[in-house]
Amino acid sequence: MLCFTIFFFFFFLDIAPPRNPSWLEKIQQTVSSILQAVNFFQNPVDKSEAARVRKEYEESSTKLSKLQSRISSLTQKLKHDFGTEKEFYSFYGHCFESKQNKYVYKVCPFKQASQVEVHTTTRLGHWDKFEDLYRSMIFSNGDRCWNGPDRSLKVKLRCGLKNELTDVDEPSRCEYVAFLSTPALCLEEKLKELEYKLDLMNKEQPQGHDEL
Ligand code: MAN
Fold first, then answer.
1. What is the largest CA-CA distance in the chain?
2. pTM, 2 dp
3. Biological process (GO) annotations (predicted)?
4. Of 19, 22, 182, 193, which has the maximum CB count within 10 A?
5. In this structure, which CATH number among 2.60.40.10, 3.80.30.20, 2.70.130.10, 3.30.70.270 belongs to the domain 95-189?
6. Residues in the ligand 1 pocket, defined by CB under 6 Å
7. Mutation test of ligand 1: which of 173, 175, 176, 177 has the most ligand atoms closer than 8 Å to its C-beta?
8. What is the three-class DSSP state of 15?
9. For strand 164-172 and strand 152-159, is the pairing parallel, antiparallel, or unpaired?
């Protein structure tokens, strides 16, 4: 007990022990590390600092999860074929509608197509692919037709001043066709027209200039 009292006397007053310093120092260090380990002299916790760090952590977590979901939706988007010149990129996330008699037809490229009658929606097909050298969009595996095939839709694309779905028809039961006018096709059409005109001009030009 006496020894312990002497030790604490030196320990707290931080006075160098007169005799056998290395022995006392060893005990001082051991006890000091034990006290630190059990956090005997607890430092007061700064609660406002803890709250600030927690808030910062929560904000960063929210930002991270938003970025992760953006990355995953962009990854999904980039899996699609948007055409040779990526000319159909602007179709992504858009739907085109056309009213024909009692139905409203809704075509959402890269997603699905449907036929809506007041409150009833019939699926005409899920996005399948482009066909005819990017001149048609195919939607297949739609709702089963009674006594018939699964519904499907072929949307024929043509050059137009604006995106416009027209002429939806059902030439064979539950097999639908429609037209979509779009500026996305006009560049290619214009180029072909110019190439054709150039070709004609070349053919019409008189031969034998080099001989002059
Ligand atoms: C619904 C619509 C029609 C289709 C019939 C087939 O009435 O989807 O377009 O021809 O079902 O039974």
1. 127
2. 0.67
3. N-glycan processing
4. 182
5. 2.70.130.10
6. 115, 122, 145-146, 170, 173-174
7. 173
8. coil
9. unpaired
